[in-house]
Design goal:
Layout (H helix, E strand, L loop, with lengths): L1 H19 L11 E10 L4 E2 L7 H18 L4 E2 L8 E5 L21 E5 L4 E5 L2 H14 L8 E9 L7 E5 L8 H13 L4 E5 L20 H13 L3 E5 L7 H4 L21 H17 L4 E3 L6 H9 L6 H17 L4 E5 L9 H4 L5 E6 L4 H13 L5 E4 L12
Parallel strand pairs: 2-3, 4-6, 8-9, 9-10, 11-12, 12-13, 13-14
Antiparallel strand pairs: 1-7, 5-6, 5-7
Helix pairs in contact: 2-3, 4-5, 7-9
Keywords: Glycosidase, Hydrolase
Protein name: beta-N-acetylhexosaminidase
EC number: 3.2.1.52
Length: about 400
């Protein structure tokens, strides 16, 4: 009997997806999907772009036109007016194209949309243009077939994310750097899945005025960064600066001009006790905040082991935990002047078990762990939960494990 049950379970596991393939697989899975009988051919979709449409709404409508051309091989029909179009939409609120600091999970309505497709027309009701854009991405995923045979099933979709912030961090500090066009292709791909944050991890890869010898001709100009930010915004993706304002600065500190700002010889951490270190950081912070409009800024602060080792082995006068907190407080106070919300890694909790109690108010802890190991993750997660802090979670190597809800 047990063997029979095992065979039955095996059959169920491998046959249910086959039956389910009759309907498109949507990712992230919407909050509610109700299929009806019938289909809408792409050839029946007509679009009108109102003369007074904002740039973000016009972008979403042009995205739909591009999708229709790509899948059917024919340009979308242009209706004489919005009332005459078979693609109908209502956007309730202006602005709010990008995620803000005050959004919560779940419950944020900014990206909410309702999509209704019949055999005659498409109707979308969205809170903001972000919801309209995401409804268009859902339509993209629902298209079956190509050419004249391409169609969309009749369906009603109601959707809003369980996670208000859905980001990907890209490393622009190690190895060969992708071109600007390659970065934009990444953003295009991530936009398909309704990603709304793109973390630009940088050590010294962005041009900073007044620092010509740092990463000489081996990074991105400020104009290139501006073009990436604008490209992301069109796709409702906030390009968030991910900086290193304490450790991971070997590329700066190996430069003879700045070597004396390090806490150890040939190291990668600044020495906050040296006035020149914070003079440099004030300059950097001003330039980065002028460059990135995002309300968030990740300041790093991970793996500052050198200061800990020097304090333990060489200089007992150094209180490495207090130095870490002092430096984070300084950085946060500077960034507050520019209206930024600070994010920082929590891995130093390994060395300073009570650090979460002392974290400057308003700093958002960011938890990370390379391994999909619940025990390891909880070692960082539990201190944050104990202090009832809002936090972000970053999975190393895309290994989300069992800890997160569906988006």
């Amino acid at each position: 009997m047990r063997g029979y049950l095992h065979q039955l379970c095996f059959f169920c596991v491998f046959t249910i997806p086959v039956f389910a393939q009759k309907q498109p697989v949507l990712f992230p899975e919407p909050e509610s999907i109700q299929y009806q009988s019938g289909t809408l051919p792409l050839s029946k979709i007509s679009v009108a772009i109102p003369a007074n449409a904002s740039t973000d709404i016009a972008f979403a409508l042009n995205e739909l036109k591009s999708i229709i051309l790509e899948r059917s091989g024919q340009k979308a029909m242009m209706a004489s007016s919005q009332a005459a179009a078979t693609f109908q939409f209502l956007v309730k609120e202006k602005g709010h194209e990008l995620p803000g600091v005050s959004e919560t999970s779940p419950g944020s309505k900014r990206e909410h949309y309702k999509l209704n497709i019949t055999s005659q027309k498409i109707q979308i009701e969205a809170t903001t243009s972000a919801g309209l854009y995401y409804a268009v991405q859902t339509i993209r995923q629902m298209i079956t077939g190509t050419g004249k045979a391409a169609y969309i099933p009749c369906v009603t979709v109601t959707d809003q994310p369980k996670l208000a912030f859905r980001g990907v961090m890209m490393d622009f500090a190690h190895g060969g750097l992708p071109t600007v066009e390659e970065i934009k292709k990444q953003i295009d791909f991530l936009a398909l899945w309704k990603t709304n944050q793109y973390y630009f991890y940088n050590e010294v890869s962005i041009e900073l005025k007044g620092f010509p010898t740092v990463a000489y001709q081996s990074g991105y100009t400020q104009e290139q960064i501006k073009s990436i930010i604008a490209y992301g915004k069109e796709r409702h993706m906030d390009v968030v600066p991910f900086l290193n304002l304490y450790g991971h600065l070997h590329e700066l500190l190996r430069n003879e001009k700045y070597a004396d700002l390090a806490i150890g010889q040939y190291g990668h951490e600044l020495d906050p006790r040296k006035p020149g270190a914070n003079v440099l950081l004030k300059d950097w912070i001003k330039q980065y905040t002028d460059l990135f409009p995002s309300p968030f800024i990740h300041v790093g602060f991970d793996e500052t082991w050198e200061t800990k080792r020097i304090a333990d082995d060489k200089d007992g006068k150094i209180n490495s935990e207090e130095l870490w907190l002092q430096q984070l407080t300084f950085v946060q106070n500077e960034l507050k002047k520019y209206g930024k919300t600070v994010m920082a890694w929590t891995d130093m909790n390994n060395y300073y078990p009570d650090i979460m109690k002392k974290l400057p108010k308003g700093v958002i802890p960011v938890i990370w762990e390379y391994k999909p190991d619940t025990v390891e993750i909880n070692r960082y997660l539990n201190p944050v939960l104990k202090e009832k802090k809002k936090f972000f979670y970053t999975a190393g190597g895309f290994r989300l494990g069992p800890h997160l809800p569906r988006c």
